[in-house]
Prior knowledge:
336 residues, Spore Coat Polysaccharide Biosynthesis Protein SpsA, Chain A, 2 domains, five-stranded mixed sheet, globular
Amino acid sequence: MDYQSSPFAKKTMSNKISIIIVNWNTKEYISSCLKSIYQNCSLNYEIIVIDNNSIDDSVFYLKKYFPKIRLIQNKKNYGYAKANNQGVKLAKNEFVVILNPDTQIKKNTLGGLVKFYKSHQGVGAVVPKLLNPDGSIQYYYHRKLPTLKNQVASFIYNYTPFKKFRWSQELFLLDQKFENDTKIEQAAGICILTTKSAIQKIGYLYDEKLPIFLNDVDFSYRLKKLNFDIFLVADSHLVHHRSSSTNKLDPYTLRQEVLLSTIYYFRKNNGFMVYALTKIILLCLLLTILPLTQIGLVKSYLMTPIIDKKKSSQLQWQNIKAIILEKRNHPGLIAI
């Protein structure tokens, strides 16, 4: 056992943390996020905000009202993964917190994560219990890692009326109340506390070929591959407002990103047969929806309402071609 993984090393680690927040047009949320840190975090911390070329006056607002943060202004939107990697390189402390701007921490959120990490061996990352703004448990983000079975479970839950399907319940941990510290497979990137040492051992924080989706999933997979555990800490709570940046994107661009990221993840991590089968299933699904859209038998495209059949059909075909070639053909990660 090396020094960094020894019990003595963990207990004597500094409590200082580097909080990394990626901002893209979330002015209305990031203010509440930063205020919650100032009000509720008693640890010694630095805040690094990476702005991905926002156009909503976020930068002006942050400079005026939060002068103590370290603000990095990207000249273009590099995506969520690359921006977080920028933050890790700039972080001065061993503990690194990846935090979404549409969140609010509580009194014990970050302190509880640090305490748990330091007192448990074999842990590579810890996450808080996620709460909706009304205080109820927020599910679906912490879940099991993707497998072909779990992809089927996800599809059934999201696109059919069968919400009680057992595989789906298991995938999304819907039977959990998270009243006790819980070992989980996938850490949602909404809030992750890890260390530079753990990141170095798995190679890097996020795969930049997964610019928006599944980068946290790939991170979790690489931790598991090296026998690191991920725990949800029951007394660490975080309020999450959901999709503050992604809901500003064109929905067909979003679907393309999800589909391409899913195929890339399986090609990278699950072997050729599973990857090929996943791609074939997705293409069959998309090639079924397209003609049904054209004759007016479906009213939504992967949960996106179809308003104009002709325009939707054109955009669907663009996504099909992107999946076949495994190459993005959308105009970019731009606001609508």
